[in-house]
Amino acid sequence: MDKRATKRTFKSGFVTIVGRPNVGKSTLLNHIVGQKVAIMSNKPQTTRNKITAVHTTEEGQIIFLDTPGIHKPKSKLGDYMVNVAINTLNEVDLILFVVDVTEERGPGEEFIIERLKHVKTPVFLVLNKIDKVHPEALLPIIDDYRQRFDFKQIIPISALEGNNTGALVQAIFDEMQEGPMYYPADQVTDHPERFIIAELIREKVLHLTREEVPHSIAVTVEEMKRGEDGRTVYIYAAIYAERDSQKGILIGKKGEMLKEIGRRARMDIERLLGDKVFLEIWIKVKKDWRNQERMLRNFGFYDEE
Which residues fall within 8 angstroms of residue 47, CB to CB, at 6 or more apart? Predict the structure, then answer.
């Protein structure tokens, strides 16, 4: 027997995850990859950049693009976020359209479906949060979406609980063609450590603050260096707010809010790096930065031409 005939084909491909804000896209991505590469929050519009995450098995390699939630933009930053999400639809081998089964289909889903009608890429409808509804409630939801678009597959899951996510991953592999290993098997993201660290800090602000504050901040890692002992990483980061009042909220009474942001972020960063971390955070004010293209470029939201 020819041994080459029994050799397993290695598959690879690019998959984008789209959906309205707060439907669980980042939770799904982190669950599949097995660690946090995209920040999670119960607040909408958590993801701002196109996050590349890599899932590698013996069968193949899936490169995921987790995009900002598609929403009606209210600023230049919002315009950028929506354009990033829409532009990925023509760049990939498969689209995962994630919806929240606890909410009725609305204008946000219709906006996405209309754009899906203009691409040739196959689309899986992923019904998320099935742990929150009775199984019988899924049938009318499935029928409703089938009438709106010809999905290649419809797969119910719970990203938070991990229900049926294995079946989703296998369905993705089944759709993939033979291809190369684009990234080393142990790599889970193409973003540098500084980006992930800044996102972990921003996640803590999302968790601890309310109303406009979480969406009015950007985080940059200004300096990152290893100490002389070789075991401690010193990180100096800045949180940029739009108004002085937001700066006051972020610092908190007697600095307690900033201390808590730093404490929670440091714990996650130490898990990420596997080292002891010294983290110092400053709060800076850049008025109306979300509508200033120069500031958006400085914060890495626009690719350089």
Answer: 25, 26, 38, 39, 66, 67, 68, 69
Half-sphere CA count of 9, side-chain side, radius 13 A? 9
Among 99, 148, 86, 162, CA closest to 126: 99
Query: Looking at the structure, do residues 47 and 157 belong to the same domain, yes or no?
Result: yes
Take residue 242 and report the two structure tokens written for it: 């739009």
For the stretch 262-305, pLDDT in tens is 999 998 888 777 788 999 999 998 887 777 777 677 766 654 43
pLDDT band of 46, cuts 50, 70, 90: very low
Q: Which two structure tokens, joined as six digits, stand for 250? A: 């972020």
Total number of domains constituting the chain? 2
Based on the fold, state whether residues 14 and 60 are members of the same structural domain.
yes
The whole-angstrom separation of Cα 60 and Cα 263 is 38
**Integer angstrom CA distances of residue 33 from 38, 113, 164, 185, 283:** 10, 27, 15, 12, 32
Q: Which domain holds residue 207?
A: 193-298
